[in-house]
C-alpha cells in the first residue's frame, strides 16, 4: 500500500498508464537576427494563447466557469506585458534563442511565486512553469502526450500533472489519477475534483514501483493506492466503488422530473454551452433548455470570421436538437481581453473596461453584428431562440441593438425568409450600471439573465484573475447580493423572466437565496443540473424567505457564507 494526499473523492479501479512527457533540452544558443527571433517567440506565444483559449472554452462548457478560470489565469499570464516584454528584451539584449529566454524569465518568476507564503501565489509558480513548458514545446516542435485519447479504464500515473494536462482528460476513460507531486489545493487537484475523477497526489516514489498495465486501486478519500492487490482488497474496494457510483446514479431518478419546489414553485434548469456539440450533454442531463450559448467560441481558433451561413447552421442545429425548449444565445462577447488576430483589435490598457461586447458590435455593424443577428433571426424559424445582449450599461445600447434587429426583420420580410416574428430580445445584467437601472430596462427588454461572474467583478472592482485581491471576489458579498435581489425584484415587478447564467446559479449555498428572491431560471454546466434539481425539489420558497432575510441582514461576506454553509449542511 502507498500513502499520499487525498485530492479528489471516489474509488478508482483500473490499469496503470504511465504518462511521462519527453524531457526538454533547453540550450543557450546565440541567434543572428534578434528581430526574427522575437517574431518566432511571438508566434509561439500566440499559438499557446489560442490553445489555452480553446482548452478554457471546452472546460467551461464541460465542467464550469469557475474551473475554466484556472486556465483563464494562464491566459492572463501570457498576456502580461511585463512577462512578455522581459522575454523580448532578454532575446534582444543577450542575442539568445527564444527557448532559453523563456526558460530564464519564466523560471525567475516561478521561483518568486514559489517563495511566497500565500498558497494561492504558490500555485502561480505551477501555472508559470506550465506556460513556460508549453511555449517551449511549440518552439521545439515537441508534441505533448495526448491524454484525451487514453483507453477506457485507465489509472493515469504521472510525476505531476499540470493544469493544462488535467483539463484535457476524458473522464469517461480515466478512472483515477496518481501523482508523485502536488497537493490538495493544487490547480490540478481542483480540476480532478471538478471532473469527478478520484485522485491521490504526493505519493512518493510511486513511478519507481508501478509499471504500465499494473492493476491499480486508489481511494481518493483515504489517500491510499494499491498496486496489484490481493483478492480481499479487490473485493473490499469494488464494493466501495459500487456504493459510490450508486450514490451518483441515484441522481438519475431526477431525469424527467419537473423542477418544482415543495410548495409548488416551478423553475427552469438550463445549461451553458459554447458550441453545438455541447447539446448532447444538455440532453444527457435532462436540461430544460440552454440559458447561455457563448457564440464567441464560434469565432475563435480559426483564421477568418465565420460566415453568416456558418453561424446560421450552428444556431439552427442547437435549436432543432432542443425541439422547442428555450435557447438563449448571447451575441458576440469579445474584445481586448480575448485574442482574435483576424479581427484586428488593438489591445486595451484595461480590457475588461474597454472596447468589447456590445460596444464593439455596435461599432462594427456591417462585418460583425448584422451577419450574426441575421443568422440568429433565420435560425429562430427552427426553434425557440432568444437573443441576449451582453455588457449593456445604458438603455441606449439596447435600443440601438433592438432597432437593428427590427431593420433586419424587415429585410427578411422583403426577401420572404422565415423567422420568429415574436423573437424575444433580452439583456445580460452583469454591470453595476445595469443593476442600478434594472427597473428602466425591465420596461423595455423581454428578459434578464444575470451574469454573476462579471457582476461580482464590476460591483466589487475586483479583477477575478488577481490572486492578491481574490478574497474580495465573492457573490455572497452583501453588495453583490443586494444587487442580485434588486435585479430579480425589478424583473418580477415588470412581469418578465429573470434567469442567471453565472457560476452562482449552481452553487448549493446560493440556490436557496435565489429561490427566495424569485429567480425563474438557473443556467449552469450540464453536469450540475441533476444535483441542483434534487436540491430545489427539497426546498420550499415560503420557508426560505426567513433564511434569505437572515442572510441579507449580515454585514460581511464571511457571515453570509458561514450562515448559508450551515443551512445547507443541515438539509
Structure notes:
There is one protein chain. The chain has helices spanning 34-62, 65-79, 81-94, 98-114, 119-140, 163-167, 187-194, 206-209, 231-250, 279-284, 296-299, 308-321, 357-363, 365-379, 395-415, 432-436, 438-442, 452-460, 478-494, 511-517, 529-536, 541-552, 557-569; strands at 2-3, 5-8, 11-19, 154-158, 174-179, 199-201, 215-219, 224-227, 268-273, 290-294, 326-330, 384-389, 425-429, 447-450, 497-500, 521-524. By secondary structure, it is of the alpha/beta class. The chain has an eight-stranded mixed β-sheet with strand order 1-8-7-3-4-5-6-2. The protein has an eight-stranded parallel barrel with strand order 9-10-11-12-13-14-15-16, surrounded by six helices. Helix 1 (34-62) packs across helix 5 (119-140) and helix 4 runs antiparallel to helix 5 (119-140). The two termini are 37 Å apart. The model has no long low-confidence stretch (mean pLDDT 90).
Task: Offer a quick outline of the entry.
This protein is of the alpha/beta class and 571 residues long. It is built from 23 helices and 16 strands.
Features:
alpha/beta, 8-stranded parallel barrel, 23 helices, Glucose Oxidase, domain 1, 8-stranded mixed β-sheet, Enzyme I, Chain A, domain 2, TIM Barrel, 571 residues, 3 domains
